[in-house]
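How it folds
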Amino acid sequence: MRPPSGPAHSPPVGRTSAWLRLAVVGEAGLVMVAGALGWWMDAPPFARFRWELGGLAWGIGATAPLLLALRWCLRTRWGPVTRLVALVEENLGPVFAGATPVELALLALLAGIGEEVLFRGVVQEAVAGSFPPWVAVLAAGALFGLAHWVTATYAALAAVVGVYLGLLYLASGNLLAPIVTHALYDLVALSVLTRVKPAAAG
């Protein structure tokens, strides 16, 4: 999820709602993009998606390392990461400050579904049809990072997360697992972001 460009400010509630609606539509649109791309690449997006308790458990359990990484990013004094955190807080914090828990949950869920269906369900599967699985994981992870380019640091961290989700997909054999992990992580991250600068909503 990319922070909007321009100086940090506290948008009116109406503008916040409009930005959230735009983000929701964009994430949902990724499912349609995945469907079209999957048809063209002969990689059906939901071919390896199954509603199973095992896949759900994989997804919930795999969220823990990402949350630990988020905690580290928020606490570290390493320059590139502290600058990235400040950028995200200043630009996205005010936007999501007025969002309700339901809006954040919806956005996180759609991001988990749309991005995982596209990058793991289609891209990773399509590459795996011609190359070893590890190549497919790296390729999908790299594209995931590029798609999240805000700064070089942000792209690199997103690529690492993409590789992690790709490995989770391989290990679980179920697209449900990375979808759950992605959605839960985004929900926690967005919830933290709305509490960083509570005055921004005023």
Remarks:
- The helical segments are 13-40, 53-61, 63-75, 79-96, 101-128, 133-147, 152-172, 176-196.
- The longest helix spans residues 13-40.
- Confidence is low (pLDDT under 50) at residues 1-12, 197-202.
- Residues 5 and 140 are 26 Å apart (CA to CA).
